[in-house]
Every structure is written in C-alpha cells, then in structure tokens.
Amino acid sequence: MQTPSDRHTYPAHWEADVVLRDGGTARIRPITTEDAERLTNFYEQVSDESKYYRFFAPYPRLSAKDVHRFTHHDYVDRVGLAATVGGEFIATVRYDRINEQGMPASAPADEAEVAFLVQDAHQGRGVASTLLEHIAAVARERGIRRFAAEVLPANIKMIKVFTDAGYTQKRRFEDGVVRLEFDLEPTDASLAVQRAREQRAEARSVRGLLAPGSVAVVGVGRAPGGVGRSVLDNLRDAGFTGRLHAVNKAFPDDLRDLDGVPAHRSVHDIDAAEAVDLAVVAVPAEHVPEVVAECGERGVRGIVVISAGYAESGNEGRARQRELLRQARSYGMRLIGPNAFGVINTSPEVRLNASLAPEMPRPGRMGLFAQSGAIGIALLARLERRGAGVTGVTGVSTFVSSGNRADVSGNDVLQYWYDDPDTDVALMYLESIGNPRKFTRLARRTAAVKPLVVVQGARHSGIAPLGHAVRATHLPYATVSALLRQAGVIRVETITELVDTGLLLARQPLPQGPRVAILGNSESLGLLTYDVCLAEGLRPKSPLDLTTAASAEDFHAALTEALADDKCDAVVVTAMPAVGEASAEDQALAEALSSAAAGTPTKPVLVVHVELGGLAEALSAATSTGPRAQAKNHGGPPAGRPPTDEPAPAPALIPAYPAAERAVRALAEAVRYAQWRRDSVDPGKVPVYDDIDETGAAELIAELLAKDDARHGCEPAPEDACALLAHYGIEVRQTLPAPGPDEAVAAARALGYPVALKTTAAHLRHRADLGGVRLDFSNETELRRAYEELSDYLGEPEELRPVVQAMAPRGVDTVVRAVIDPAAGAVLSFGLAGVASELLGDTAHRLIPVTDRDAQSIVRGIKTAPLLFGWRGAAPVDTAALEELLQRVSRLVDDHPEVVGVDLEPVVVAQHGLSVLGASVRLAPPPARDDLGPRTLPAYYTGR
C-alpha cells in the first residue's frame, strides 16, 4: 500500500505504464517512504562510473540520511519518480524546487533542479528520456516552468537526453560542469520528439510479438485437439522459422518431445541459454497467473492469452483481467488478449501462425486487426476465398486478433503498420476505441502514407462490448464516422465492403479524380454501373457498349483508349458470361485487360462480372505482357506504397467484383481517400492571435475550479463565462437581469434602445417559437407590455428569470459549440440556430484543433450554408468573422483541457461582423493524462 511521504497525499495519477525503446515495458510511479530497501538495492547495482556521473565524486553507497532524503517527498517542491520492472527500481529521477540563488524554495518559485540515475543494465533502453517526459509533466502540474541540470562534460549520454528532448534550452559551461536550463512548456519540436519515440517504441513492442525468434505454447495436450494443441499444430504446419516449445505441467517427466517439438513441464525448464520471445497461453483462466509468473521470471517478452473467462464473463472476470494486466506489466511484458484468437505473420522470414486459424493465409500486403475472434475468422476466410478465385489481388501480411484488448490495442498495431515495409493497406474491425484522441492522431499520420479502412461493430447499441473498458460516445454514429473521415480513415459499413475496398487499394493506384469511364459487353450492366456511380458522387461518362459479340481484342482496344483519355480517372469494365464452356475466352480476356491496364499504370481498373468464375480466376493469374511503367505521383504503385523511380515489383492485378454496386462503392472510397491525401498535403494552420490572453484564462479557470462546489466541475456564472471568453477575444453582448418590469426598464435605459427581452429558464432558452424571446422594443411602453405578456403566458418572473439585452444588427442566427466526447475527443460543431436545423441534424463537426481550412469547410459543410452566402438575393454575411470565431473557440478548448464544453447561441452573423448573444461554458478538473502528456499505456486495470 503506497502512503504519503510528508504533507501531500500520494499522487496516484502520476503512476503510468510505459513502453521503452526496445519494446519492453516499465512502470513509473512516485517514490515513497516504503522504498528505502528498493532504493538501496538499486544503488548497489549501479556502476561506480554512473555513481560518479550522478554525484560528481566517488560515492560507493548511500548513507541513511541520503536514503531518507531520496524517499521523503512532499510531491510539490520535492518529487521523486522511479521506473520499475518486476517491482524493483531500474532508474530514478527527482526534482527540487529552487529560487534564483539556487537554494531550496517553495512556490511561487518556478524553477527546479533535476537529476537522473539509470541502472547500467538498462541504459540505452530510453528509460531516462521517458522519465524526463513524466517528471516534466509533474513539474508543470506543480507550477514549475523551468528545469536546471548540472552534468559532467564526460556524461555524454545524459547531455544527449536533455538536448534531444526538443525543449527550448540554454547551455553553458562553468566550474567544470555543463549547466543546462530549459523551459518545460511543450513545443512543436518536443511533441514531435515525444511522438517519434512513442511510435518507435510501440512499433518495436508489437514487432516482438509478430516476429519472435522462439515461441512457447503453454497448455498443449498430448492428444490431438484442444486449443493449445491446435495452436502448436498451426505453428508447426505454417513452417514457423524460429524455435518451438510445447509446455504442459501434466507432461510426464520422461517426455522429451511432442511430434518433434521439444516438450517441457514448465517454461522454467526451457534451456536457460535460449531466449523465449513469445508465449501463447491456452490454459484455464484460474491457472493463467501461475503461467504468467513463470513467463515473467523466465524473461519472456510478450504473451498471447487465448484463454477466456475474463471481462467478457462479468464482474469476477473483469477483476481477473485487471490482475492479469497488472501482473504482465510488472514483468515488462506486452499482452495480447485475453480471449484472443491469436496472431499471424506471413513473412517468409517468420511464417508465424500463433492462432486458431487452421490454415496460413496467403502472403500479401494487407494488415488485418480484429477485436472479435469471430470477425477475424470471417475476414481471413473471405480473403482466402477472394484470393483463391475472385480477384487474386493480394493476401495478408500480418493479422492480430486482440480479444478483450487489455493491453495491445489497435493503436499499437497502427504504430507497427505505419512503417512496416510489408504492409500497404491496413484493415481494422473495431468494436470500441479506447483512446480516441490518440487513434485519430495515429490514423491521420498512417493515412498520409497508406490507406486505413475501418468497419465498426456495436456502433448503434451505445454499449461497449463485454470486456472493453471504454466510455460510450454521446455523438451519433454518422457524426463519429464523419470525424474519423477527417482524420483520413476510410469508414465502411460491412465486412464485405472492408474486403472489397482493401483489395482495390492493395494493388491499384489511387484515382486522380471522380471521372469514371464504363465499358463492357452488356448495355444493361453498364447503365446499372452508371447509376451507382452517380449515387456514390462519382462523375461517370456514358457507358460504352461493346455488344455481346466483343472479343478480347475489342476489350483491349477500348480499355487502352479509355485509359489514354485525359478526362478519365478510372475505368470500370463490365463483363457478362459467354454461353457454354468459355475458359479459353476468359483467359484471353483477362490477358487483354491486364495488358491494356499495364500500359497506363497510373489509373485504377476494376472489373464487374456476373457469375463469371472463369474470368475471375484468369484475372487472378493474368500477368501483363506489356512494358512495366515507371511509378509517378499517385499512380503506379499500390495506394500504400510511396512513389518510386524503380520498376514496379509486380504487375497490378485487376480486382473483380460480382456486383456493380460493390465495385463502385470501393472505387468511391478510393476517390474520397485520394482527395483527402491531396488535401492533407496542406491542411492549413492553427492561427495565432495577438490578443489572446492564455495566462489570464488559465488563472481564471483555476480560480473557478478552486471553489468548494466546483471540485468535480462547474458551469460558471454568466459573467464569469463571458470574462473567460473575453480572454480569447470573444465578446458576448451584455445582458442585465430583469426580475421585474421596473428593473427591465432601467436595464433598457442603461443599454440603450432598441432592446430584446429574453427568458433564461432552461426549458425556454433560445426558443423564440415558444415566446421566450421578444425582440426590438424601442420604448418603455412596448417593453412593459411585453414583460406583462411574458409573465401572463409563460409564468412568474422567478421561474422565467428574464434578462434585457441590446439588439444586435440583423443577420443569420447560428450556433457554435465545442464538447469533449468520450469517443471522438475534442469536437467543434456549427449549424444554424432554430428547431428546423436541430430536427434535421444539419450540423457540421470538426476535430479540435481547427485550422483555417477546417474553419472554412465547417461553415460550408452544412446543408443550409447557402443562407450565409446570399440565398435568393439576400446579402451575404461576414463568414470571415464567423470563421475567426470558430478558430478562437477551438483555441480555447485546445489550450485548456479544463474547458469541457462551450455553447454560443445564438451567434448573429451580419453583413459586417457578428454578435454573440448567449454563452455558457462548462469546466472540469483536467484529466490526469491526455494525448498531449507524457507517453503512457492505457491504465485499464486501475479504473482510470
């Protein structure tokens, strides 16, 4: 049990699991008074050289006074963190707050001296860099803005830790030491460094699971059948290139091998000279802790838990899953599962089938991730069928079924796929997104280099699947889908569409635009394809009917001509089957189409066939007899490969589809993705406004949250909300309370006529249609009459809470909102005010932070946008002022994680300028860690 050291409670939210540079994991936590023995043992294992670098003198052992000082902290002015593996320290870092003279100090002093010590056996793993991120976050939380460090010139490794971090820093040499001073405010450079390290570490940890040198399967039965034996057989049958071990504590003592695989009663019994990289666990859930302990003590790097009986089975299983994750991370192991289907890597250098799939998928360039084992099976089976005779376009590079994804998630696999040379297209089946901000960030980066296609299950139930520790979204599925599309994600509705789209993107170039040529030997099928293209937002040309008498040469000539047309971006070929046996004709047609397509490799070609297995099989095998063209721009290589001047490694096989709508939907997704790729080259800029007072806003937020009744969040009073918005250059028109008619008249005189009279009761706010808003009173008589009517029709003033506000210039009433959604992160929304827009859901959304281009697109993204630009002869309104307001709101939410909601309603946009007539803000204590904080793994087992 962790306890406080001095005067402040133990900051449990500083605890974090992290992935290190080599892919292993460690736990970071505050040092407490109970760590004296751990600290002493740790120090004894540090070399004399490292001790000298830390204390600038020989320092063979810590005194009792040293141990007391290094384990007693107040968690404000003196803080120590430790990185642990297996409960033992491998590194420490501490800071002490100092004043300008370098002496111990308390707030408001905002500088601290920082020092590290890393056990020699763990140096080079990125431990110090990770600890620096975490101690810097802690220091910022405690009001420290700058670190100082003194380092011996010979301690090059530690100097590099500081200089490579990306912070703004000063460096000088004095009295024989290097003194470094650096600001702790995150910079673009420091965030870039942090995220690059995160990507390398997490990718390496997944690589260790997918490309192990040795695998132990725990829970293997002697007789065929059973989960453990099936996994072992699948590994052996796939031709795994590493070393295999079968483990079962029930094996007889004299059993040495099982069908040629070395057999052991325990992981401990495997030759100590041989490293075990991966353990596949297939024992009953109650025996898993014993197996995990053995693996951890043996130094296993990762485990795949096939066993069920965890969070998917109820509260008891949920507690068992939290303990499993805690145990695995305490040993520095990554975990796939529990309740996982397994992992596959088809690389010839690995040939890993550590799964329940009885056959190894065909090697290819599509990566698959599935949270559901059943869907994983369906995906593999469907790709096997398509590869066997429908398209033959490509196969699988890697496959991960995460089960309950207690540890390794889709985010980790995205990190791996990002720079995996064997994966061109990423396909994901997701039932929940545990860290939406990180997912959208990784998706945006991945989609910039290779397509990411996602289908989401359980999207309409509003309930997370059993075993998935996530919060449900408050946004409609269509909204979440649109937000992910902004991050470059290709969202599809079904598993069939997932495979269809993936097959097209894996081996065909991205289209340069939406213009589609259609040609074939059936007029009806061509017209059907034309109609589907229009429905999907494409721009089809009139179909070219080659008639049923068309030969392979006719198809070749027509396709060659269509591809040569500068007004064509893609071609859909429709083909009806010949009557009778036509295998030779199918082969000739396939060769003709492939040869014509190879002549223009910069444009995608798709085939729609109707029950024409012969042609599909021929297309699977057809190779071009034409010259291989050089890859240029978005053409030539598959969508996920960067352009190159080298010849294409293989001819682009043509995907074939049994229905026009399936082919066209896949093509439409490719067109939209290609446009996103082009747009993402210049995504716009987040503006900098000189009049924004970020510090003043932060101080006001802290003051409002410091109130006794606001510890769990609050909605500030209107005057406080207006003051906060004013720090970001957002002025709200003043309102004055009018508890009675006399007060209303006095308010009108103070503000100046003409005025509006409004109720602020929740059920009537912004409801002019219910009479809660009365406008344009030019004198006292009109105002008093309106006040009387308001009271007579809607209720007493105490209930209505009327206010008076000066009239704004007439214009278009709009609504601007920002919210932190559990599934999507920070979202900015915009629409026109009024019940009609609300009823029709005519609202546009963008992820925060919003760039100038995002602001332009969100204003134009609603169906009623023409009302802003001069509909039916009306004067256009000041959309530039509206876009600036949207960006200011975005900046406020992005700069201050405590701001969890902003509502501006109505915002009246006039011909010149705009007026914010109503505003409310919601505040909450900031999350312990967000996506801008230091690198951490999800803390599912702590409930955070």
What does this structure look like?
The strands form six sheets. The protein has an eight-stranded mixed β-sheet, with helices on both faces. The chain is α/β, with parallel strands linked by helices. The chain is flat. It is built from 27 helices and 38 strands. Helix 11 (about 410-420) packs parallel to helix 12. Residues about 1-5, about 390-395, about 625-635 and about 640-650 have low confidence and may be disordered.
Q: Secondary structure elements and their pairing?
A:
Layout: E1 16-19, E2 25-30, H1 36-44, H2 48-55, H3 64-71, E3 78-85, E4 88-98, E5 111-118, H4 127-141, E6 146-151, H5 156-163, E7 169-174, E8 177-183, H6 188-210, E9 214-218, H7 227-237, E10 243-247, E11 257-258, E12 261-264, E13 278-281, H8 288-298, E14 302-305, H9 315-330, E15 334-336, E16 342-345, E17 352-355, E18 363-370, H10 373-390, E19 396-401, H11 410-418, E20 425-430, H12 436-447, E21 452-456, H13 477-486, E22 490-492, H14 495-507, E23 515-520, H15 523-535, E24 539-540, E25 544-545, H16 552-564, E26 570-575, H17 583-599, E27 605-609, H18 613-621, E28 656-657, H19 660-680, H20 694-705, H21 718-726, E29 735-737, H22 741-751, E30 755-759, E31 773-777, H23 780-794, H24 797-800, E32 802-806, E33 812-821, E34 825-832, H25 835-840, E35 843-847, H26 852-860, H27 879-895, E36 899-909, E37 914-916, E38 919-923
Parallel strand pairs: 5-6, 9-10, 9-13, 10-12, 13-14, 14-15, 18-19, 18-20, 20-21, 21-22, 23-24, 23-25, 23-26, 26-27, 27-28
Antiparallel strand pairs: 1-2, 2-3, 3-4, 4-5, 6-8, 7-8, 11-12, 16-17, 16-19, 29-32, 30-31, 30-32, 33-34, 33-36, 34-35, 36-37, 36-38
Helix pairs in contact: 6-11, 8-9, 10-18, 11-12, 14-19, 15-19, 16-17, 17-18, 22-23, 26-27
